[in-house]
Amino acid sequence: MVFNWFRRQFSHEQAAPSTEEQATTTPPEAEESTEAEIQSDASAEISADYLSFAKAAYKNIQQRQAQSESVAEPAPIESTTDEVISSESSEPEATSTEAIVSETPTDEIEPVVVADEPEPSLKLDSQVENVSEPPVTETESIVTEDEPTASQIEAEVVTEDEPTANETETSLETPAESLPFWARAEAERQARLERLKATAIEEPEPVLATTAETPQIADEASDFNLVFDEGFLWSAEILAAQGRKPEDVSIEEITWLKKLRQGLDKTRRNLVNQIKAIVGQGPLNQAAVLEIEALLLQADVGVEATDYIINALQERIKQEALPPEVAIAYLKEILRGMLERPLTSHNATFAPEKDTLNIWLMTGVNGAGKTTTIGKIAHIAQKSGYNCLIAAADTFRAAAVEQVKIWGSRSGVEVIANPGQNTDPAAVVFDAITAAQSRNIELLLIDTAGRLQNKKNLMDELSKIRRIVDKKAPYAKIESLLVLDATLGQNGLRQAEVFAQAAQLSGVVLTKLDGTAKGGVALAVVQQLNLPIRFIGAGEGVEDLRPFSSYEFVEALLSS
Ligand SMILES: Nc1nc2c(ncn2[C@@H]2O[C@H](COP(=O)(O)OP(=O)(O)OP(=O)(O)O)[C@@H](O)[C@H]2O)c(=O)[nH]1
Q: What SS3 class is residue 293?
């Protein structure tokens, strides 16, 4: 059974506790406890429950790792690592391509560099009108030279993929597998805690001890080191609060949540901690609300989103004094509500539909992380069991095509590109759709140019691509995603407005949340563009982009 990363979504009904519940951080489905019990030593019990959940999850992951090492890897670890080293020939290329990209400052987006499209759009349009006409034939299907197989990629990242039912069964020693822990009677729970205490956690094994020899891989692989630290505990708690079972928790999810929280660290320190300090001073009053307003504006949350948050807080404090925990819980509720509001007019889940052609147009200015995002989504798609293909339709810059190819190679996903420079991107798209149709591709990711000379050219090119897609694959599920660099804050939003007009956007990918204090821009994005955030990126590694969860984002933003 393949874990579908795309469908890993927070369910509001199941997981979102009410404000009051959050204030007491009562774990979900704890309704069997009496009020008195909750009042007395609820927090100690909850901590124990979460701790036991985390321990059980930790043990399960450990066992799965041990199993996958012994079953899937007949060769000793050393030889596996050697393989990884030898298959890593593309890594230096990746570095050099990124170096090329970084030579091109984002500022260059602004200057007008008029370069007419090489082919008159009329020619392409006529092709579209007569779909039976053979497409441009120069476009080549580029099969990656290295041809890293899915299993090689797997070897790179040490996954816990495909825990079969049998594996799951055998990996569990605790009775927690059949019932959620919070549903157990007090006596049973105590017994379990005792048992867990007895089976103290072993020190994490240095699974990737040879990482020094493989620097690039080491960076990614080390993300999967299993360490029972504070970050693990927090991540496990977030998963438990969403109704997950310990046996369902994977090291990848834990790693991602840790990364997300770490990525939002600067935002949290600069913005949220100050808000929490204000809220924690006592019941919210008008002066405190004004202080919060100033902080939000400074953190690029934007005027509209700030007004919304402040109004909501003021409305609430008119009705009742808000003690600190309730105020924080209410703030979380406001933020989650804002982030989820666009979902009333867009699909709540964002996953490619199986056994059909899904086409995702990726747009955004150069440097926003578009190519990287395509590579990461392709990786997720492969791992989640979708047939995936990439169209390198950013023909404006040769390096962009090369970069897509490298990412395709890393994910084992084929790339359709045109060997010529400045060729018609719509022709590449046409050929990519033809290839996708003949190969039963389920997800076609289209890279588009981000740096066009002016707004009109950009709009013309994007709408031309869109026309091709609509005409050639009218049955396909089409999404148009804008990749936005979070570090740009409000400036990024101005760019977004241009793309929103040109590309019929259906969602946003927010990249580079790591290392910026402007994580608050996520709120501005949804408020100003009314577009849902579909993915967030918090690092440069292939595993550092995941589907967006408003619950996890807000928890990470406001975690202590
Ligand atoms: N820290 C961090 N860096 C990122 C993230 N996403 C992308 N990057 C980096 O941002 C730089 C630009 O990313 P690209 O994917 O090349 O951006 P692009 O929009 O495709 O730009 P072009 O290739 O010029 O079209 C690269 O160095 C990426 O590694 C992220 O989530 N976090």
A: helix
